[in-house]
């Protein structure tokens, strides 16, 4: 059983309006059978200081990443994790979080790797819910455990590995990092910890569209018209393009993946989660420095 | 041979280590809620505070060395940044009453010994390591003259 869609007119111009719900809709549907609300934040303790009533917590680092290899958890671990959170294969999952839903979009992308059908974002995320002075609780998580089937992760449609990116050169790439990281002035986001890349710069031909451009001041997504200006006019994407987005570890680019796939309707967009921490340390891959995208080297 | 840790830092370390990994987060949350407000005299002096750039959320610290060479750490971070507040609070409590020499002798990897890496992620722990490093540097600068 899934929850009804949010019929808000402000989502109507997006390619897949069923992927968003508003704070009003969520307020009205809290407690609806078949709906589970998930909070996913950058700050691992934010859920504990207050969350939407009934919401469960999924942490990108301690829950979704494999603890040993640099990869996501497998089907068995995912089934165990989400089953514990009261999520069945048919559940409508609404994810929200801090920082313009940055980590929420990352969690949504991981749910998509496992083919979870009905997974949506709360437009505006945690900040909008808080700004509207809606209820928060510090109740402990209390979801009933349910069975979730063990589903093999299907990476290929939405996830690119380093070798895929090399094969892709010549097709559109969107680098969603800050201009300082793109040009090679630094390897980390301003004010962020060093995550280890040995070289600075960007993948040849990548267009620099910092991820947060897709968000309005209140944290909601910009309108379809504004997003078209940014990605079609600005970055030159065209219908039918095969696009790969990347950032530093694949989180900010999940947000852009969501925008391109679900709001603008591009098909086959992939997120390169190895991103700069892999590319910038890999041996003999081409790198361009400076503010221009640069040319793809001949092969 | 490394010197023994000052008592309160050792106590904090033991308190974390005794807990299961999941419960360690709850203790970090308690620290976060206990981060003291800035004393009156520093409230209107954002200029004195240094931003810890390595932390994912804005956090500012300021070290004071009094006439008895005792160190005081003051920190401020938004409520919506509980993990960073927790790190600052551990250091504020852990350094309380220590002398300059004692603080400078704290091992740089003390944060890694709290057993929080698994609960919080190693990446996030780097913020606390950086906070300790900046605290020590401020003390060195203040006592160099």
UniProtKB/TrEMBL annotation, chain A:
* Keyword Nucleotidyltransferase recorded: no
Q: Name one Pfam family in it.
A: Rhodanese
Which molecular function term from Gene Ontology is one that the record holds? thiosulfate-cyanide sulfurtransferase activity
Q: What are the alphabetically sorted keywords of the record? A: Pyruvate, Repeat, Transferase
Highest taxon above the source species:
Bacteria
Instruction: Write down the chemical reaction(s) this protein catalyses.
Output: thiosulfate + hydrogen cyanide = thiocyanate + sulfite + 2 H(+)
The protein here is known as Sulfurtransferase
TrEMBL record, chain B:
Similarity annotation: Belongs to the SufE family.
| Gene3D superfamilies to which the protein is assigned, alphabetical | 3.90.1010.10
Q: Which residues form the Fe-S metabolism associated domain?
A: 14-137
Species the sequence originates in: Glaciihabitans tibetensis
* SUPFAM superfamilies per the UniProt record, alphabetical: SufE/NifU
Recorded superkingdom: Bacteria
Q: Which Pfam families match?
A: SufE
Q: What is this protein called?
A: Cysteine desulfuration protein SufE
Lineage, top ranks: Bacteria, Bacillati, Actinomycetota, Actinomycetes, Micrococcales
Membrane-crossing ranges are none
């Amino acid at each position: 059983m899934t929850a009804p869609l949010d019929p808000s007119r402000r989502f109507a111009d997006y390619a897949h309006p069923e992927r968003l719900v508003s704070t009003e809709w969520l307020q009205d549907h809290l407690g609806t059978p078949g709906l589970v609300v998930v909070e996913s934040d950058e700050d691992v303790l934010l859920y504990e200081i207050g969350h939407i009533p009934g919401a469960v917590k999924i942490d990108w680092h301690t829950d979704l990443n494999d603890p040993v290899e640099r990869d996501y958890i497998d089907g068995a671990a995912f089934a165990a994790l989400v089953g514990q959170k009261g999520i069945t294969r048919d559940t409508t999952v609404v994810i929200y979080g801090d920082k313009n839903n940055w980590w929420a979009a990352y969690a949504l992308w991981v749910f998509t790797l496992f083919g979870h059908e009905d997974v949506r974002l709360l437009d505006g995320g945690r900040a909008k819910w808080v700004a509207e002075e809606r209820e928060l609780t510090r109740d402990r998580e209390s979801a009933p455990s349910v069975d979730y089937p063990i589903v093999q992760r299907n990476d290929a449609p939405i996830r690119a590995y380093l070798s895929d990116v090399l094969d892709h050169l010549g097709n559109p790439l969107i680098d969603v990092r800050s201009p300082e990281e793109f040009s090679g002035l630094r390897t980390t986001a301003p004010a962020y910890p060093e995550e280890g890349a040995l070289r600075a710069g960007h993948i040849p031909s990548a267009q620099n569209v910092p991820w947060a451009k897709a968000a309005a001041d209140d944290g909601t997504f910009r309108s379809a018209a504004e997003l078209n200006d940014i990605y079609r006019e600005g970055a030159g994407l065209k219908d039918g393009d095969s696009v790969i987005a990347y950032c530093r570890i694949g989180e900010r680019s999940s947000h852009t993946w969501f925008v391109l796939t679900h709001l603008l309707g591009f098909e086959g967009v992939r997120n390169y989660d190895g991103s700069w921490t892999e590319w910038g340390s890999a041996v003999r891959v081409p790198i361009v420095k400076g503010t221009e995208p640069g040319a793809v080297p001949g092969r | 041979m490394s010197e023994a840790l000052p008592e309160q830092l050792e106590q904090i370390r033991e308190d974390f280590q005794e807990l299961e990994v999941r419960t360690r987060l709850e203790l970090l949350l308690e620290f976060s809620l206990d981060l003291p407000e800035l004393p009156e005299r520093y409230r209107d002096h954002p200029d004195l505070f240094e931003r810890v750039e390595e932390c994912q959320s804005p956090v500012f610290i300021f070290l004071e060395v009094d006439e008895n060479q005792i160190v005081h750490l003051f920190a401020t971070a938004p409520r919506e940044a509980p993990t960073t507040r927790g790190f600052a609070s551990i250091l504020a409590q852990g350094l309380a009453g220590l002398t300059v020499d004692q603080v400078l002798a704290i091992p740089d990897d003390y944060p890694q010994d709290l057993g929080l890496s698994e609960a919080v992620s190693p990446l996030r722990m780097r913020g606390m390591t950086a906070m300790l490093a900046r605290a020590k540097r401020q003390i060195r600068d203040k006592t160099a003259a």
